[in-house]
Amino acid sequence: MFAAERRQLILEMVRANGAVSLRELARVVQTSEVTVRRDVRALEAEGLLDRRHGGAVLPGGFTRESGFPQKSHLATAEKTAIADLAASFVEEGEAIVVGAGTTTQELARRLARVPGLTVVTNSLLVAQALAHANRVEVVMTGGTLRGSNYALVGSGAEQSLQGLRVSRAFLSGSGLTAERGLSTSNMLSASVDRALVQAAAEVVVLADHTKLGSDTMFQTVPTDVITRLVTDEPPAHDDRAGAELQALADQGVQIAVAGASGNTAGNDAVPPRGARRDVALPAPRRGAAGLRSATTLGETSPGAERARVADMRRR
Question: DSSP state, 212?
C-alpha cells in the first residue's frame, strides 16, 4: 500500500471513530507501528488530526488547529485589511518582533518598504516575505522547525530571545477573549509567543473577527498585556464578536478596526496613516508603566509616537 493510500485510510478511521490507537491503525493498514507513527506525524503537520500518546484523534475544541494550507485560505480579505492597518503603526528605524501566522505573514509583506526596520521573527514565512527587502534587517531565532506553521519553536527559540528588547511585538493566534486574552492550541508555539512578548515594550495583536470570542488551550498573551488589537469590522449579526470587542476596550485594550474603505493600498505598499477607524478607550489600566495611552489612537500624532519610541530606546 502506498503512503498516500495508507494516510487516507488512517484519516478515514480517525474521522469515523474520533480516536484510534497506533496498534489498531497498524493492524488495519497492515504495516508496522513505526510506519503508522510517521504517517500520523505527516497528517498532523497538515492539520488533519492530532497525535496523542499511543494514538491519533480528530482535531477539535480547545486542541483544534488547522495547518498552514487550510489557514491561508480563511478570511483572506480580512487579513489583508488588518495587515494594511497594522503596517501603518510601524515607524522608520524601529526594531520589532513578528510572530508566526498567516496574518503576520501578510503584515511582513507590507513592511518590506519601511527603511531602517529590524524584524526579529521565529517564522520562516515572515523571513521569506522580507528576504529581498534591502532596507530591512531580518533576525531569526534558533529552534526546531514546526512544519504545520513553518515556525521555529522549542528551547532554542526561547533562549535566543533572552536579553532582547524591541519597541513592539506583532502576534496572532487561534482565539482571543477579554477573559483570557490571546491563545493558541499548541504548547510549543504558545511558549515562544510568550518569549516574544517579554522582549517588547508594547504588544499588538492581529486577529480577524472570526477569532473574537474563541478560546483555545494555551494562553499566550493575557488581556492586561495587550496594548492594541487590530481587527476587521465584525458583521452586523455577529453579536459575539461585537460584545468581545467592547469587553476588550473596557479592559483598556486599544482597538483599531480596519474599515472597508480605509485600506486600499496594494500588497507591497504601506497605507496612509489616516486609513483607520479607532474606538475611544476608557481610562488607562493601573500598573501599565507608561505603555498604555488613554487617548484614542487617532489622537496620537506620528511625531509623538516617534518620540515615545525614542524614549523607550534610551531606557
Answer: B
- Reply yes or no on whether the pLDDT at 73 is more than 60: no
Q: What angle do CA 106, 180, 151 make, to 5 degrees?
A: 35
**Do residues 182 and 205 make contact, with C-beta atoms less than 8 angstroms apart?**
yes
Rama region for 54: left / alpha / beta (φ>0; ψ in -120 to 50; rest): left
pLDDT, tens only, 149-201: 899 999 999 999 999 999 999 999 988 999 999 998 888 899 999 999 999 99
Residue whose grid cell is 487617548: 295
What pLDDT does residue 205 have?
A: 98
CA–CA separation, 68 vs 84, rounded Å? 21
User: Across the chain, where does the E strand assignment appear?
Assistant: 19-21, 50-52, 55-57, 95-98, 117-121, 136-140, 144-146, 151-153, 166-171, 175-177, 181-184, 200-206, 218-221, 228-232, 254-258, 277-279
Distance CA 258, CA 232 (A): 5
Residue 178 identity (one-letter amino acid): A
User: If you ran DSSP here, which 8-state letter would residue 233 be given?
Assistant: P
Amino acid identity of 202? E
